[in-house]
Structure formats: C-alpha cells, structure tokens
Amino acid sequence: MENQKQTSFTFEIDNFWEKVDEIRSPIFLSGGCEWFVQLFPKGNNVEDHVSVYLCVAKPKTLRLGWKRRASFSFIMLNQSGKELGRWPEISRMFCAYTKSWGRAKELPLKKLKEKGSLENSKLIVKVEIQVHEIVDEGGITGKEMVDVGGFQVLCSQAIPVSLLFEKHPDTAANFRQRNQLVKTAFMNLLLGLIETLNKPPHSFTDTELSNARSKLIDLTQVGFNVDWLKTKLDEISLVRKKANAHVQEPEPDDEHMKVELMNMEEMVTSTSQGWLVRSWNEWKVRLGGYGHVRYEKID
Questions:
Q1: What is the tens place of the pLDDT at every residue in 165-195?
Q2: Average pLDDT for the chain
Q3: What is the CA radius of gyration of the chain?
Q4: 8: β partners
Q5: What is the 3-state secondary structure (H, E, C) of 212-277?
Q6: pLDDT of 253 higher than 70
Q7: CB neighbours of 293 closer than 8 A, spacing ≥ 6?
Q8: Type and span of the H or E element at 179
Q9: Measured between alpha carbons, how far is residue 53 from residues 81, 156, 272 in Å?
Q10: Most confident of 84-88, 219-223, 266-270
Q11: Residue 242 vs residue 212, higher pLDDT
C-alpha cells in the first residue's frame, strides 16, 4: 500500500498533578487503522518522567498475522499552546507481539514543574502519525523480524531490545558492523548474556562465569558499550568468591568430647550433691546428640 497522509490527534488531560494511574485517550483513526495514546503521569517503570505510547486499538479483533508500520511523534503542550516537549519522529512495526511503542522517558516532570509551564494543571498531548504499511492478515512462523534501533530482531524480542536501548541508549553507539546477519547475531549474544546475568549469583558455576566473561569481551571488542554488564558480572563474581571463602565451623572432636564427658560423669557420681546430679542429668540429655556417650540415670 502507498503511504497514508500524515494525520494528528490531540487530547487534553485536566488536573494533571492529581493523576497517578495510566491514562488512555479516546480511540482515533489514522491510515485506516484505529489507535489510542497511553500515558503514565508518574512514569512507566521510571521515575520523574511522563511515559507516552502509541497503541493499536482492539488488537484481539484483528486477524491472525496483522501488521502496521507507522512513523509517529509526540508533542506536549500547555493550555496556551506552548510546546513543552517535542521529540524526533520514530518508525516502528506494530504486530501481535508489539502492540504499542513509545518512550518511557518522554518528558521530565521537573520541566512541567517549572514556573508557568503547566497552566491550570492542564496537559495537552498531540500525536502526529503516518501509516506506511498495513497487513490485515498473514501467516505466523514465529520468525518475523522487525527493526529496532538499526537491528533486525524477532518480533518477540522487540520489546526487550527497545527497553535495553531506552535504559542504556549508548549501548550500540560504537557498533560499526553493517551486515544485518552479523548485527542480529551479536544482539542475540547480548540478550542471552543479559538473561544469564539475571540468575541468582549463588547459582553460577565457575564455567558459567568464565563463559559469561568471554562473551562480554566479544561484545566489547565489536563496539558494544556494556560497562553496566561488566559491573554486574563483577558483583556476581564477588558474591561467589565470598561464599566460597566462607569457612564452616569445624565439627567437634568426638573422641575428645567423649573423654571429657566420661571424666565429668565420674566426678559427678562421686559427689553427694543432689542438685549437681540433677543438673548433670539434664545436660546429658541436651548433649544426647553424641550417640556414643551412654546415658544412665543417676539416682
């Protein structure tokens, strides 16, 4: 299909500072498709930012294998129409795996708190969107690919890769490989390493740690900025090192303990102090874990 004409949609949020939960705009039509805007006034898994996403409306009613490719951008305005934030246009493929795209850190809340920014606590959200491709129905193989940050990844990997670039935007800044197959292979290596390092530190073997460090070196050599992963790997190694260095208390010497108990029993039985005999009986019961020490009641 030919590119559809760019359209825009605007909706207003009153009493913005009182909002806490997710906000959804009314459904609107663009490029023959239904959409809505999803906004988190206190951020979506981030702090001190407004998070905004463009979402496909009623995805469960669409046919198997549907796809939508669209370019879009968000503009934030106050009641007077003054722009509070505008970000570069991004192009994304929407499908059953990725029904929404956007930015978790769309607008810093501190900017909205600046004097005169948000008049009467009203925020206006405008989305400009152009639909480039529509597939109403298609086969699903599980191997459909989408582009995220210049990397071709599986649709099922799109969200994790998008979150990766959002949290660590410089991850691939120095990556110079152009071949898409090579890029995909290294991205899979990176995603696999991230998954591995999310395991509990005590569950790692020396071999797993060695393999993880080798993969980290490979990723660094091709240009990935993964210092944050190196820090995590070092922390895991330190936890394991401390665990392995922990020296357990030595078990008591059974033979030595037996001799000491026998000597003490002989001393107790030779006395006529009833309270001492009773105390000794009580302690022998408590020390009954030493099966080789024969317990006899002393009358």
A1: 878 888 998 888 888 889 999 999 999 999 9
A2: 81
A3: 33
A4: 128
A5: HHHHHHHHHHCCCCCHHHHHHHHHHHHHHHHHHHCCCCCCCCHHHHHHHHHHHHHHHHCCCCHHHH
A6: no
A7: 257, 258, 261, 262, 284, 287
A8: none
A9: 21, 18, 88
A10: 219-223
A11: 212
Helix axis angle for 206-221 and 227-245, nearest 10°, is 160
8 A C-beta contact, residue 233 and residue 212: yes
Give 17-74 as a DSSP string. GG--S-EEPPPEEETTEEEEEEEETT-SSSSSEEEEEEEESSGGGSPTT-EEEEEEEE
Token pair of 283 as six digits: 């302690």
What integer pLDDT is reported at residue 227 of this predicted model? Answer: 93
Amino acid type, 291 = G
Tokens of 190: 């990176």
The residue assigned the tokens 């002989």 is: 266
Find the helix or strand (DSSP H, E) in which 9 lies.
strand 7-13
- Contact partners, residue 216, CB within 8 Å, separation at least 6: 193, 226, 229, 230, 233
